[in-house]
Design a protein that fits this description.
168 residues, alpha+beta, 5-stranded mixed sheet, 5 strands
């Protein structure tokens, strides 16, 4: 299903491992206000599991793949993808460096960096509040203090033609 097909959806929730540098970084977290500002979702949240958590669904799927490819001598990427696809739980696809877009530079042109990434586990952005504001807290419970930070770059304000050109 194409989640960016032009139909606005209510909410996207992404659960990630709490590994700084791989998942928990400014490039990933700034995807939340971007997807809301573009009108793809009313609310986008990223939940990072607490360090030392029990294995999550993604961890289990990687372990399913390892059951197959750890028992083989694999010397090419094609053979690795083929071995991973032997698992009935996974669909592996090979990607190439040119398949990736430089979101770091792109998001740097739209948003400032949030310096609170490592201290919190729950981040979200919503159209029900201010566009371009990142909300964060240690958990998604009502007992937890919530903080926010406007991460919109001051030189490219929401609604300006310059910003609309960058977002296009």
């Amino acid at each position: 299903q194409n989640l960016l097909d032009g139909n606005k959806r209510c909410q996207l929730s992404v659960v990630c491992d709490n590994c700084p540098g791989q998942n928990k970084n400014n490039h990933v977290v700034r995807l939340a206000p971007y997807l809301v500002e573009k009108g793809y979702f009313k609310r986008v949240q990223f939940v990072f599991l607490v360090a030392g958590h029990t294995k999550n669904q993604a961890d289990r799927r990687f372990n399913n793949m390892k059951e197959t490819y750890h028992k083989k001598n694999l010397y090419t990427m094609d053979k690795l993808v083929e071995a991973c696809n032997e698992s009935s739980f996974v669909e592996a696809r090979q990607v190439f460096w040119r398949d990736f877009y430089d979101y770091k530079s792109y998001f740097n042109s739209l948003y400032t960096q949030c310096d609170r990434i490592l201290r919190y586990q729950h981040f979200y952005s919503t159209e029900e509040k201010d566009i371009g504001v990142l909300y964060f807290r240690t958990s998604d419970t009502e007992f937890c203090d919530e903080y926010h930070e406007n991460i919109i770059k001051k030189n490219v304000r929401v609604g300006t033609t310059e910003r609309q050109a960058i977002l296009a």
